[in-house]
Amino acid sequence: MTVGDIIDALSACDRDTPVRLAINPFFPMAHRLGGVETLVDGHGRPMVYIAESPEAEQFGPLPPAVAVALTWQAPVEAPARRRRGTTPPNDGH
What we know:
Layout (H helix, E strand, L loop, with lengths): L2 H8 L9 E4 L5 E12 L5 E7 L5 E4 L2 H6 L24
Antiparallel strand pairs: 1-2, 2-3, 2-4
């Protein structure tokens, strides 16, 4: 992904919408962004890094729909529930 890809993806969003960073596909969590840093790597290529908040603020588990959209997990449907039978009245035995 490039800076242009991110700009294109974000250009359709409301500028006041909060941004969260989705981390770790095996234990998906949402984090607050902390900053953007640019530098030149060891091969002379410019690189951009998006950092987590310095407070390491975590907002809890990533919503399942986001993990599915990122293809970090497959869609899961709740198992069908069986109707429970009724218990006969206890007549003291």
